[in-house]
Amino acid sequence: MTSADNLRAFRRDGRIVIVGASLAGLRAAECLREEGFTGSLTMIGDELGEPYDRPPLSKQVLTGWVPADGTTLPRRRDIDAEWLLGVPASGLDLATDHVRLADGREVPFDRVLIATGVRARPWFVESEAELDGVFVVRTREHAEGLQRALAAGPSRVLVIGAGFTGSEIASVCRERDIPVTVAELGPYPLVGALGAMIGEVAADMQRAHGVDLRCGVKVTRLEGDAQGRLRRAHFDDGSTVDADVAVVALGGIRNTEWLRGSGLAAGVWGIACDTGCRAMDLNGLITDDVFVAGDVARCPNPVYEYRLISLEHWANAVEQAEIAAHNMIHGQADRWPHLSIPRFWSIQFGVNIKSVGVPTFADEVVVTQGSVSDHRFVAAYGYQGRVTAAVTFNNAKWLDHYRQLIETAAPFPPPCPTPDQPVDTKPVPVDFPGPLLLAQGATVVVTGHDPGERRVTAAHQHHR
Amino acid sequence: MRVVVDLSRCEGYAQCAFLAPDAFRLHGEEALMYDPEPDDALRDRVLRAAAACPVQAILVDRLEGRRIPVEAARS
Ligand SMILES: Cc1cc2nc3c(=O)[nH]c(=O)nc-3n(C[C@H](O)[C@H](O)[C@H](O)COP(=O)(O)OP(=O)(O)OC[C@H]3O[C@@H](n4cnc5c(N)ncnc54)[C@H](O)[C@@H]3O)c2cc1C
Ligand code: SF4
């Protein structure tokens, strides 16, 4: 049989298994059917119920407008799949092409898509994390619990971590007129994602809305009362805050533990893949039957010097799912690369914050349009003289213009495209928190001398 | 009914909020908030909003009424 015959047979009655039944998994399944895959499709997911959307969980759901179980994703088409829900996958055996489930079942496949995403990083002391009133927000159950706690009218909410999710939650608290303290280890909110200049704007916004913002501090201890309810938090500068609700918003942990021993390049940074969403093995060689999409993927982007980039962005999950699905059922010559420029949004304090590109891939930033003090502006990011990203505050309609600048490697700083030239248009250093704040431990070691012997081995450490 | 808006694409022109104000609302100047499961009574309005969106960011469920139940693995 020729490989074209093989491919035709595979598209007709092959077996595809998707692990992770959320945004990326569902979209990939829909695309597989859309593009004519008629074989068997199995969706494995550890959450019960139909796939749902997460961004509303820290927005519409927490304000109380939309119920936590009211964000089920719409379907573009019937996917005619077998759903194995409520049990996590616990292993991937690439010698026999099986996914192992935690209850011992084995699910065979010809091709597999990994879309296991990210989970919330829990508070580092387990007994404190279990106190009543301590929350994370990743799933609808989390959002449901937190929304109920907010509706009960807490005396104060403490948000630990001022990234996007933490800032959105603080915004909702203020909207609901709940006193809120935000504790951030970095010098400003959002600084890790957007740098110091935008971080300063975000800090102003929080304070203007009555947030008790404390930057440069670390929460060291959550203290409970005799009933096991949170009542106080302790900071490393000796101060304390009394709060009956704490939201731990310290980012995510990629769900890759189940791939240990699989031979894939999977670790705390995600699962490395090529732009075709094919997974890499530990040695950095591309595999042919294992694909990756969504928050768990770590994909190179040619615009950013082919660096491997992990994104926790909704649009990225959708686009990678579509690319992965297409490539799973096409031959090499018809495969597509995932080359889109990252896009992200966040809604907080009544402001629509959006970004295009990779703001952390920059050495300078400049306000190119609008007015920072009005919270309506565009800032462009540049790396060695070219535009690499842009952030808009209430100026979303300009994003596409900047996307084109990024795609065409336009010179930085770019000219202001409108007459509303801002007063101060001098680029400043972008100023991200140093490696000390971001460092992670080693994840691999290389062994062997001769080129034929050199191999990479995963170094499994305990990461929090 | 079920709806999702690709807010990375949405440009905040508010056509949807004008056509189906119970399902789509502007929060501040241009941040869109929406109800992902608006009441079926709003169906026509929501469909009109989806059709009017200049960047086609609104996706409405195409499986309405013939939903295949999802089973729990252990049931
Ligand atoms: C509160 C919140 C707000 C957000 N807001 C925004 C926003 O404003 N803008 C934006 O661009 N993005 C936002 N995001 C990010 C966006 O939701 C994600 O990018 C998106 O959900 C990624 O989809 P995914 O399918 O890759 O991963 P996930 O949605 O994380 O899905 C992975 C699924 O796999 C399951 N799983 C994990 N391990 C296993 C296993 N071993 N076996 C079986 N199943 C497993 C998980 O339980 C989960 O159901 C937000 C996320 C959250 C949580
Ligand atoms: S009509 Fe489309 S672009 Fe305009 S606000 Fe609604 S979703 Fe956004």
TrEMBL record, chain B:
Positions in coiled-coil regions: none
SUPFAM superfamilies: 4Fe-4S ferredoxins
Keywords: 3Fe-4S, Electron transport, Iron, Iron-sulfur, Metal-binding, Transport
Keyword Electron transport carried by entry: yes
CC cofactor: [3Fe-4S] cluster
A GO term, aspect molecular function: 3 iron, 4 sulfur cluster binding
Pfam families: Fer4_15
InterPro entries hit by this protein: Fe-S_cluster_ET
Keyword Electron transport: yes
Top-rank taxon, per record: Bacteria
Name this polypeptide is given: Ferredoxin
Organism, scientific name: Streptomyces sp. R39
